[in-house]
């Protein structure tokens, strides 16, 4: 009989642990909605990040899972962008990546929006990333538990869509498809091209494909899912279809 390692035991969440993660996610969703209402042309990334932090405190989640990522325009091409003085302009992509903790358990979510009508290229990139995520989620729903296969489904779709050489990874998708979440924001297992991880039933994973183009911008869409015996359950409720992510600039 195989002895389970600590990271394998830790990956499988109890009902109480899962309830904490879901509660943290629901708070994050409320904060995101409040932030979308607060956004206005000329607002800086830094001001938006400050608002997000204060809103988490208002909802009783003063300990964040990580510093909020807020990126406007070309800054969305930077995967781990730190909010700065960049001001929001009409036509910008807007990326939010944040989470909080409830009793030490983390949430993690990314959404990309458009401040006004997106360009044809912005729309193409967004719909491609959304489709890549949906394909990965469908594979999980069918019961696939091999992490590298899930990563491959999303990565190969994006490679084909942007006509890159299939022999090498897509230049614009520079990170793994996702990771486990628990008391740490990044836990085992991991969705990566060469991952040997097998997803255990009861673990919580992020599914977060992204495309990033220097000088243009990027799109990332991230949901958290619970791995079940027969498939998966999406724990993220915030809408992500194209209609919902086009915001009225004001």
Automatic annotation (TrEMBL):
Residues 20-229 form the Peptidase M24 domain. InterPro entries: Creatinase/aminopeptidase-like (IPR036005), Pept_M24 (IPR000994), Peptidase_M24B (IPR050659). This is Peptidase M24 domain-containing protein.
């Amino acid at each position: 009989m195989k002895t389970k390692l600590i990271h394998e035991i830790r990956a499988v969440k109890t009902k109480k642990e899962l309830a904490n993660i879901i509660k943290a996610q629901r708070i994050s969703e409320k904060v995101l909605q409040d932030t979308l209402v607060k956004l206005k042309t000329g607002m800086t990334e830094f001001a938006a990040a400050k608002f997000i932090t204060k809103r988490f405190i208002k909802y009783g989640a003063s300990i964040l899972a990580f510093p909020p990522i807020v990126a406007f325009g070309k800054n969305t091409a930077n995967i781990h962008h730190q909010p700065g003085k960049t001001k929001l302009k009409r036509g910008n992509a807007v990326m939010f990546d944040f989470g909080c903790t409830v009793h030490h358990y983390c949430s993690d979510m990314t959404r990309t929006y458009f401040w006004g009508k997106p360009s044809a290229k912005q729309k193409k990139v967004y719909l491609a990333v959304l489709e890549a995520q949906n394909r990965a989620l469908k594979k999980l729903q069918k019961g696939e538990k091999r992490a590298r296969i899930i990563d491959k489904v999303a990565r190969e779709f994006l490679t084909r869509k942007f006509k890159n050489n299939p022999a090498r990874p897509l230049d614009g998708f520079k990170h793994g498809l996702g990771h486990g979440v628990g008391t740490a924001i990044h836990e085992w297992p991991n969705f990566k091209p060469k991952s040997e991880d097998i997803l255990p039933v009861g673990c919580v994973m992020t599914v977060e494909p992204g495309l990033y183009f220097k000088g243009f911008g990027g799109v990332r869409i991230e949901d958290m899912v619970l791995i079940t015996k027969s498939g998966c359950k999406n724990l993220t409720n915030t809408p992500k279809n194209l209609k919902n992510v086009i915001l009225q600039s004001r």
